[in-house]
What does this fold into?
Amino acid sequence: MKNSVLLSLVMLIALVIGTSCMKEKVVLFDMSHGKQGTMGIDLIESYRGFVEKTPNAVLEVNGEEITASVLKNADVLIVLTPIFPSEQLPTFTQVERSAIVEFAKSGGRIMVVAEEERRTLLEEYGINDIVTPFGLEYGEACPVRDNVGAIGLQGKICQERRELPYSGGRIINGGTALSIVNDEGGYQHMAYVELKNGGKVMAAGDAMALLLLSSAEGQPLSGMGGARGDAIAGAPVTPGTPGTRGGPPPAEGERSEGAQQAGQGPAAGQNAVQVTPGGAAPAGGGSNFFARFWGKDSHIFKEEVVTWLLE
It folds into this structure.
């Protein structure tokens, strides 16, 4: 009896010590490379909620240059992107580019985003210096129309196919396809790699799902699309030209490797996944402008991505 009580006591003490010694997982949420419009604080709290679903994980906000010292105690780095050209802040410095690459090479996990050129100046921003060492590359803008949506692919990150908002972005070359544009060509616009040292790198060519900009009631091509959508957004319009918004899709050989792996996307204006009503409306729903965008799964998709980064 005494031995049994003693054994139980030892096990309890070991459990308490083990729990107290468990390393805290730190997700560093960067706000120094884009404030994401006026939604910054709400967005931070949304991400904090996702992060804290993982035991012993916390979210910290960074507003300074990303250096090796800043990353020293971090496990995950999340860097979103400006959504309006006026928010284009100082680009990644050489110090930041080197520090982030070394962070991933040392087992760190990173998620980065770079939008189409009217929102993120690719060469100036320097994002490819961060992702190309890991076999990923930001390419040209995807030739799709406004609000066609995207499909998160079932696999290591998504438990099932996800309906995501999408209204313009960049092709991501290389890696494992995470999401493809819901239009002819099925362009890969989110991809990831997992490194042998435990590091993970995810690159997104569009920020809408990651900024939680959609609603359960949104419909594809709701209100504006093609040339009209670009004109409203202030981008140049070239109707009828292959590889541009409003023009015909590119040839088979021009599809990204990820799109070929995932299968051809549906014809323009059709849904690869049946739109279903209901579900929690993400931030930006209701009467908000972004409520018109198709893609009811932004929240669950973002939660799955954060969970994967912390695993």
Observations:
- The first strand starts at residue 25 and ends at 30.
- Confidence is low (pLDDT under 50) at residues 14-20, 222-287.
- Residues 23-310 form a domain with the Rossmann fold fold (CATH 3.40.50).
